[in-house]
Amino acid sequence: MMIRTLIHALLIVAIVSPSAIAENWPHWRGDRGNGISMTATPPTRWSPTENVKWKAAIPGRGSGSPVVWNDRVFVVTAVGESGGMTQSTKTKLRFDLLCFDRANGSLRWQKTATRETPHEETHSTNGFASASPCTDGKYVYAPFGSRGLYCYDFDGNLVWSRNDFGQMETRNSFGEGSSPVLAGNKIIVPWDHEGDSFLFALDKLNGKTIWKTPRDEPSCWATPLVIEVGNQKQIIMNGQNKARAYDLETGREIWSCGGQTERPVASPVAGDGRVFIGSGHRGSFLAAFDPTGRGDVSGSKHVLWSVGRDTPDIASLLLSDGRLYFYKAKVGVLSCHDAATGEKFYGPTRVDGLRSIYASPVAANGFVYLSDREGTTVVIRDSDKFEIVATNSIDETLDATPALVDEQLFLRGERHLFCIED
User: Which residues fall within 8 angstroms of residue 169, CB to CB, at 6 or more apart?
Assistant: First the structure.
């Protein structure tokens, strides 16, 4: 009887294990927002033809990163009238959410959220679909900034939509790009621009506003990070005036710290009781915070350590195994610090093969993946010492941050979605 029970249990494990233990990639930069996967074992070497499991064409233009849940991969895009990549305020665009089959790259469905002509221009390197979608495994949320937020089920049916947030006026018409995040029954939507800025919490099931908190901030392209501190969940947000934390349940500000640089883009990371926030345009700022502080923590013991040079601009920080990785500005010059003490392991170090950086670094299985705009990804050892393992290319522009799931690496290029697998 015991043997029969054991065999039955093993059969159940064998049947459910592939999907039950798989770690998904439901948000931009993964489930924890730190850019790491604890379980993925993707390849370290590939080329446009080697270790490419499949390659799927994506119409239009966008740099929102892919998100992955079990057998589905989701991306967003903005498509011109002719289907091409040329886009401006003179062109009516179709804002689409695409669902690909993870097994073979076939298009399961493609839904048009809205058709609109953008109200303002965007930077030449930025499209009109730069925010990343997110999913809870039942619904997928497609963000299109001033064009609204759209919730679909996994069969592509529209569940709800919100297009009443207003129109963003971004600094120098650089365009939009902050991504929403899911936290429990809420979806958190950042809304920082040159007009009235806010942070929204919506009910993820119906899109209704739970709370709306004003922010004394100009344009910011960072994505919120939700962490747990004691019995309270905090939303960590970068900002030009201050880095801040908000209560997830009420939207009230918990703590803040000044010292940031202009038009921040890099998103925060957190781990081991510390929060790391930085920016690097027209100045340099990076600090480690103890998130148990209250009020203005500038100059207090809650600022654990700080860095005043060579901090990242567009790419976000990476926190992996107690190491904090970050670029200098927008170039392929990398630093690695001890996350606990701030002491430098190495850097700033020029990474051969990398030039202009938009995509944020990601890590899995003892390796760090560093991608630049020319489509090159340099893989280094996740270690206290700098060591290049491989240099790879997909031969097309790569601005989106990669996704890491199981044995696969997903790269959203300018024209294609790549599934990299041994």
Answer: 120, 193, 194, 195
Q: Which residues pair with 275 in a beta bridge?
A: 270, 289
- Beta strand segments in 269-366, E: 269-271, 274-279, 285-289, 295-296, 303-307, 318-320, 323-328, 331-338, 344-350, 362-364
Domains along the chain?
A: 24-420 (2.130.10.10)
The position carrying tokens 């006026």 is 169
pLDDT of 299 higher than 70: yes
Question: Taking the model in full, what pTM does it have?
Answer: 0.93
**Each residue's pLDDT tens digit, 329-343:** 999 999 999 999 999
Task: Phi first, then psi: give them for residue 156, nearest 5 degrees.
Answer: 90, 10
Q: How far is CA 28 from CA 20, 195, 232, 249, 270, in A?
A: 21, 25, 23, 22, 15
Give dist(CA 382, CA 368) in Å, integer: 6
Which of these, 394, 369, 393, lies nearest to 382 by C-alpha position?
369
Cα of first residue to Cα of last residue in the chain, in angstroms, is: 42
